[in-house]
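Researcher: Good morning. I'm working through a list of sequences from a screen, and I'd like to move beyond sequence-only analysis. For each chain I'm collecting a predicted structure so we can compare shapes side by side. This is the next one on the list. No need for commentary yet; just the structure.
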Amino acid sequence: SPLAATWADTGKVHIWDIQRHLDAFETPGTQIPQSAMQPLFTVASHGSTEGYAMDWSLDGRLLTGDCGGNIYLTTRRNNSGASFVADRSAFRGHTSSVEDIQWSPEEASVFASCSADQSIKIWDVRTKSRRFALDVPGAHDSDVNVISWNRRSRYLLASGSDNGDFKVWDMRKWSDSNGRSTPAACFAWHKKAVTSIEWCPTDESVLAVSGADDQLTLWDLAVELDAEEEARHRDAMVGSDGAKRDVPAQLLFIHQGQNVIKELHWHPQIPGMLASTALSGFNMFKTISV
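Model: Good morning. Structure tokens for this chain:
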């Protein structure tokens, strides 16, 4: 059965079987039984500390991160039924709220996390010490709100921060000879906090980013201009007031019209289609760029 998980302000994480709800979409008028309104399982590992971060693995394991900096793993005993095991031992290392979690698309035991402590960490659930394996302290100059692991180029990880910039990290070059981590790319287009970020599932170089500045932007990081092309590009970017604007060549498209955009996702079946949620409503759109 398809599962969903929700955070509550009580610090509990509820796991739901949503099969009956999906069936109701197929058959109008279907009555959902009261039993389907109750969670299959409640994760109580976080105590009374609420949180935001969570991610499912493909094999049904759930990671949840709370505002106290702790991350817990919940595992399903089998492929059916409501039998789950919630770990009591936390993955510890963040010193502030865990903002986002992503399982690795390549290594089944590896996941990444980001935090309001401005760091990004890589973990392995097989590590008995529950300590991180890799760390980028000061990945951004403010809270790291969101991360996204590239599903096609699996060594690329993108992150977005509270100050509006987003960065791309190459896992093959995680740190230099001095132990310092340097991003492969950095863009500071958004004027307010980055609220969501996700790599395109069909094009490894395309990335979607949304911000609290009511913009959803599409980027193609494969675009590289030579000096002559760069000059032409700069001359072409002129605002309505006649002043030149510094617009990155990698910026493909800006979607506007929504207020307080909170989340975006690429459609899993329609290539190039995006869905975004905001205070003002729900949008679905497809550009000619992707």
